[in-house]
Write a structure and sequence with these properties.
The structure holds two protein chains of two kinds. By secondary structure, chain A is mainly alpha-helical. Chain A is built from three helices and no strands. Chain A is elongated and about 80 Å long. In chain B, the strands form three sheets. A six-stranded mixed β-sheet of chain B has the order 5-6-7-3-8-9, sandwiched between helices. Chain B has a four-stranded antiparallel β-sheet with strand order 11-12-10-13. Classes of the chains: A mainly alpha, B alpha/beta.
Chain lengths: 75, 307
């Protein structure tokens, strides 16, 4: 009984892949290590405070109030 | 059977200024083992590639099993098996996996294990291709060509670079294929190989067939069955040697004189007398049965292994 060539080719490519320790390292182990390393390096950083200004003019008062209200809600 | 398996007429192929194949005609009968013999660069591989449908001729026609590559390519590929001059198979697959893969490409064919038995790689079933020796790799690529149970098997220099024992094993496999009734077209630059395996041999030189016959017929065409080679000091007079009893032809190449002779026991005494009379010292004398190599040299003035 013969398998479909596509099935057979897929099987063969998979076998070749898992028999290649280097390929396994770079595809499976390395990305995990990399994300762990980067995660540790850049963890627990508080966001910097943002200075927000409202340009004076018509409706500036209302805008300033709205911004203040928004910032207040975020806290 | 006398049906024609492979036929080509007026095949021409050019690569730039180089004419690789120059108006080549061939016809191979069904069930026959046909050899293309010639030095490197004679156009053997180009010819075979055109017959296999891998490259297209500049002009000329090819008919394989009654079909042509222009309209019957897909069905034709199912009916032929090809072993290229060099095959690079996946290094980390086992022998059985490789054969099974190739088996999947054909609608009908042989069982992978049966093919493994034909090429005598049963013990290597689970061995990675990387671990195989040169001869074993060659037999595996032969298995890949055989697994579709082809009607015609194309072999391009199947034993080049193999040691004598590995070569013999490949010959055994080819003999087994032949016994199953398959047609075989092989190219080679080894004389013994063509003499041993092929029913008919075409000698190819510079893109043309310069001789076509059975190996025995080609050798008989020399008009003599033995070749005497001598090395002397000083060099003898070629014209005088030519006139000796039993000598058909004399030529000198790199200080070695080759004489084509009918009967060694007649020619040798005459030769020794002649050399003694002319006080020429004999440094070496060898004699062998005429081979296809001698045929090639007689026809082209060059040795097969020179390109």
């Amino acid at each position: 009984m013969r398998a479909h060539p596509l099935v057979e080719l897929t099987r063969v490519k998979f076998l070749e892949f898992i028999r290649e320790p280097e390929a396994l390292f770079w595809v499976l182990v390395f990305p995990v290590l990399l994300s762990l390393a980067l995660g540790i390096a850049f963890r627990a950083r508080t966001p910097q405070a943002l200075a927000v200004a409202v340009q004076d003019g018509a409706g500036a008062q209302a805008a300033a109030f709205a911004v203040a209200l928004k910032l207040f809600r975020w806290k | 059977m006398s049906t024609i398996a492979i036929e080509c007429r007026g095949l021409t192929k050019r690569y730039g200024d180089v004419v690789a194949v120059d108006g080549l005609d061939l016809s191979v009968r069904t069930g026959e083992c046909f050899g293309l013999l010639g030095p490197n660069g004679a156009g053997k591989t180009t010819t075979v590639e055109i017959l296999e449908g891998i490259s297209e001729p500049d002009s000329g026609g090819v008919v394989i099993l009654g079909e042509s590559w222009t309209n019957g390519a897909a069905s034709l590929r199912e009916r032929i098996g090809i072993q290229l001059q060099e095959t690079q198979l996946a290094e980390k697959l086992t022998v059985l996996e490789t054969i099974t893969l190739f088996r999947s490409f054909y609608r009908r064919g042989l069982e992978p294990r049966d093919v493994m038995r034909i090429v005598r790689l049963e013990e290597k079933e689970k061995a990675w291709v990387r671990k195989l020796s040169g001869g074993q790799k060659q037999r595996l690529s032969l298995a890949a060509a055989l697994v579709g149970d082809p009607e015609i098997l194309f072999l391009d220099e199947p034993t080049t670079g193999l040691d004598p024992q590995a070569r013999r094993q490949v010959w055994d496999v080819i003999a087994e294929v032949r016994s199953r009734g398959g047609t075989v077209l092989l190219t080679t630059h080894y004389m013994e190989e063509a003499e041993r395996l092929c029913e008919r041999v075409a000698i190819v030189d510079r893109g043309k067939v310069i001789a076509l016959d059975t190996p025995a017929g080609l050798i008989a065409g020399l008009g003599a069955e033995h070749v005497l080679e001598i090395e002397t000091d000083p060099a003898p007079d070629l014209a005088r040697l030519q006139g000796l009893t039993g000598v058909r032809h004399a030529r000198i190449d790199g200080g070695i004189v080759s004489l084509t002779v009918g009967e060694v026991h007649v020619a040798v005494p005459a030769l020794l007398d002649e050399l003694a009379a002319a006080s020429i010292g004999l440094k070496r004398l060898t004699t062998h049965h005429a081979t296809l190599e001698d045929v090639f040299v007689a026809m082209t003035g060059r040795h097969l292994r020179e390109s």
